[in-house]
């Protein structure tokens, strides 16, 4: 077939700066003439794709299929040797990371805005991953951004669209194209990591008293959930819900937390389901929720780290080389690391920081409070991996205690009895005024500069608890592997009892600003079950009042209540 490379004249668009998770904007912005093409060309200008193999996949949201074809047109014109594409343009973010690594590709382009809503009036995103399967580091994203600011042309080869629904080999101009099954490689990966026969025996032998429910939230993980829970583990079809990926996620917000995964929470409570779990739009986040028991992401990664070497074959065989958490995440995993004699890293928010440590052999299990958990099996957080890890641990714990059913609540209580408990909650204030958000940040920075909050004592009106500020600081991080420095990664108010409050401006929204407030209070194991097993908001009530008073957050943001509490 003959083909011709055309050069299309264009002009730069302002604001095409990729964040920690790529470029995210409203769909209508990406649909502007030349907008998507400019950004795709900028990626190729930054990474020089000649002769390379690249993976393409997305979370199935609105505008994904068209963008896959755009990447084919521009990539072929820029000399890409081969594209590996998930059938129908579908690949979860963890599955894409696995494909890049398994097939030794040079990188990948992921079409996702993660947990943000989809549809013609909502969000779209484009993200570049490098050859280790992880998100592009700042050295690459900065280069892409610089290219977007000076672009004057992009190259295309105009040919009929590829049929993304047909698996197999074809060509697009000079470029080889392989359409692969979106699910099978990932399921095989998990079967190599976890003890599937143990899990299957447990969920089937205890099916009357231990029911399982997986909620795909109409995101990308529905087909993965069905392949694992129904096909591999033999659970009934009723054990998965919202399992068909939809361009608008069924009109929902595919973010697995207590607010947006309310359908799962309601069914778990109504139907007495012992193990419920949800994943987000692109499959890299997860929530674990059983009858009467919500697992915070901070507790989830700590419990996985505690049991992994004993219960999970991958870690039994390879060992654990270190643990890590993002700075806003509670210190629960730190206590596990200390007891087990493991290195524990505290990094800025952004999975790329974990990737450096993994590539250096210094990290095996890690997590973020934003419902992201993972390990060194890939270089992305992995929602379905975390869910199966929990099932593996529960199956093992029940094998060790055959006379009592160990569920989520019992596992949490056993953990707190050994390590104590970090009461933890996050308040999200979404789409607030950017000006108000900046005033909040500036006011906290003034306190840091002047040390004006240090040694001040604040009393909760409702509980009478007193909290004395020990210090206020900005979190800076020097990467121990590449020695890069990340400054101003969050403002931290520490109290002399070990409690802390963190404030961060988030970069993952597409409209206005999002301010997150993280509140943490540690209670030692010696406090006993009555104190350790309190409701989270009850355990944190006094500290939350003090945090809002100190920061004047409600005044700056002009919001009385957060959008989401987790």
From TrEMBL:
<feature type="domain" description="Alpha-D-phosphohexomutase alpha/beta/alpha">
    <location>
        <begin position="300"/>
        <end position="406"/>
    </location>
</feature>
<keyword id="KW-0597">Phosphoprotein</keyword>
<dbReference type="InterPro" id="IPR016066">
    <property type="entry name" value="A-D-PHexomutase_CS"/>
</dbReference>
<keyword id="KW-0119">Carbohydrate metabolism</keyword>
<dbReference type="GO" id="GO:0004614">
    <property type="term" value="F:phosphoglucomutase activity"/>
</dbReference>
<dbReference type="Pfam" id="PF02880">
    <property type="entry name" value="PGM_PMM_III"/>
</dbReference>
<dbReference type="Pfam" id="PF02879">
    <property type="entry name" value="PGM_PMM_II"/>
</dbReference>
<keyword id="KW-0313">Glucose metabolism</keyword>
<comment type="similarity">
    <text>Belongs to the phosphohexose mutase family.</text>
</comment>
<dbReference type="GO" id="GO:0005829">
    <property type="term" value="C:cytosol"/>
</dbReference>
<feature type="region of interest" description="Disordered">
    <location>
        <begin position="1"/>
        <end position="20"/>
    </location>
</feature>
<dbReference type="InterPro" id="IPR005845">
    <property type="entry name" value="A-D-PHexomutase_a/b/a-II"/>
</dbReference>
<feature type="domain" description="Alpha-D-phosphohexomutase alpha/beta/alpha">
    <location>
        <begin position="195"/>
        <end position="289"/>
    </location>
</feature>
<dbReference type="Pfam" id="PF24947">
    <property type="entry name" value="PGM1_C_vert_fung"/>
</dbReference>
<dbReference type="InterPro" id="IPR045244">
    <property type="entry name" value="PGM"/>
</dbReference>
<dbReference type="InterPro" id="IPR005841">
    <property type="entry name" value="Alpha-D-phosphohexomutase_SF"/>
</dbReference>
<dbReference type="InterPro" id="IPR016055">
    <property type="entry name" value="A-D-PHexomutase_a/b/a-I/II/III"/>
</dbReference>
<keyword id="KW-0460">Magnesium</keyword>
<dbReference type="InterPro" id="IPR005844">
    <property type="entry name" value="A-D-PHexomutase_a/b/a-I"/>
</dbReference>
<keyword id="KW-0479">Metal-binding</keyword>
<dbReference type="Pfam" id="PF02878">
    <property type="entry name" value="PGM_PMM_I"/>
</dbReference>
<dbReference type="InterPro" id="IPR036900">
    <property type="entry name" value="A-D-PHexomutase_C_sf"/>
</dbReference>
<protein>
    <recommendedName>
        <fullName>phosphoglucomutase (alpha-D-glucose-1,6-bisphosphate-dependent)</fullName>
        <ecNumber>5.4.2.2</ecNumber>
    </recommendedName>
</protein>
<dbReference type="GO" id="GO:0006006">
    <property type="term" value="P:glucose metabolic process"/>
</dbReference>
<dbReference type="InterPro" id="IPR005846">
    <property type="entry name" value="A-D-PHexomutase_a/b/a-III"/>
</dbReference>
<keyword id="KW-0413">Isomerase</keyword>
<feature type="domain" description="Alpha-D-phosphohexomutase alpha/beta/alpha">
    <location>
        <begin position="16"/>
        <end position="154"/>
    </location>
</feature>
<dbReference type="GO" id="GO:0000287">
    <property type="term" value="F:magnesium ion binding"/>
</dbReference>
């Amino acid at each position: 077939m003959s083909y011709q490379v055309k050069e299309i004249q264009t002009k730069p668009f302002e604001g095409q700066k990729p964040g920690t998770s790529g470029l995210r904007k409203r769909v209508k912005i990406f649909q502007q003439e030349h907008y998507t093409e400019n950004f795709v060309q900028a990626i190729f200008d930054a990474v020089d794709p000649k002769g390379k193999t690249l993976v393409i996949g997305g979370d199935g949201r609105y505008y994904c299929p068209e963008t896959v074809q755009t990447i084919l047109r521009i990539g072929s014109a820029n000399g890409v040797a081969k594209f590996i594409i998930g059938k129908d343009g579908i690949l979860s973010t963890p599955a894409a990371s696995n494909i890049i690594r398994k097939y030794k590709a040079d990188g990948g382009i992921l079409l996702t805005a993660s947990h943000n809503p989809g549809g013609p009036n909502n969000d779209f995103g484009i993200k570049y991953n490098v050859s280790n399967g992880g998100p592009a580091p700042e050295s690459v994203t900065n280069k892409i951004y610089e290219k977007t600011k000076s672009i004057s042309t992009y190259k295309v080869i105009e040919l009929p669209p590829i049929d993304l629904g047909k698996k197999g080999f074809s060509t697009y101009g000079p470029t080889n194209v392989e359409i692969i099954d979106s699910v099978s490689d990932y399921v095989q990966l998990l079967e190599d990591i976890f003890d599937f026969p143990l899990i299957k025996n447990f969920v089937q032998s205890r099916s009357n008293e231990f029911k399982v429910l997986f909620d795909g939230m109409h995101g990308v993980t529905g087909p993965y959930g069905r392949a694992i829970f129904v096909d591999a583990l033999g659970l009934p079809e009723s054990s998965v819900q919202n399992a068909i990926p939809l361009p608008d996620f069924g009109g929902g917000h595919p973010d697995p937390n207590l607010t947006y995964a309310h359908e799962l929470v309601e069914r778990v409570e109504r139907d007495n389901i012992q193990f419920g779990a949800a994943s987000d739009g692109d499959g890299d986040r997860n929530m674990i929720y059983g009858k009467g028991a919500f697992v915070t992401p901070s507790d989830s990664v700590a419990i996985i780290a505690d049991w992994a070497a004993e219960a999970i074959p991958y870690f039994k065989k390879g060992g654990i080389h270190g643990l890590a958490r993002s700075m806003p995440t509670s210190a629960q995993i730190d206590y596990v690391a200390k007891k087990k004699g493991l290195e524990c890293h505290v990094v800025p928010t952004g999975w790329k920081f974990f990737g450096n440590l993994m590539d250096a052999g210094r990290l095996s299990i890690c997590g973020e409070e934003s419902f992201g958990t993972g390990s060194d099996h890939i270089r992305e957080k992995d929602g379905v991996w975390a869910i199966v890890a929990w099932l593996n641990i529960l199956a093992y714990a029940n094998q060790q205690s055959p006379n009592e059913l160990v569920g989520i609540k019992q596992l949490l209580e056993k953990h707190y009895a050994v390590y104590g408990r970090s009461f933890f909650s996050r308040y999200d204030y979404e789409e607030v005024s950017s000006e108000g958000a900046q005033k909040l940040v500036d006011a906290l920075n003034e306190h840091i500069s002047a040390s004006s909050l240090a040694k001040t004592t604040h009393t909760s009106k409702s509980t009478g608890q007193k909290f004395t500020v020990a210090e206020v600081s900005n979190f800076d991080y020097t990467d121990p592997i590449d020695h890069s420095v990340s400054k101003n990664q969050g403002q931290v108010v520490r109290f002399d009892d070990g409690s802390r409050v963190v404030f961060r401006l988030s970069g993952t929204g597409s409209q206005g600003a999002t301010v997150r407030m993280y509140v943490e209070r540690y209670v030692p194991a010696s406090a006993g079950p009555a104190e350790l097993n309190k409701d989270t908001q009850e355990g944190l009530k006094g500290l939350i009042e003090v945090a809002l008073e100190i920061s004047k957050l409600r005044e700056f943001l002009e919001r009385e209540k957060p959008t989401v509490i987790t």
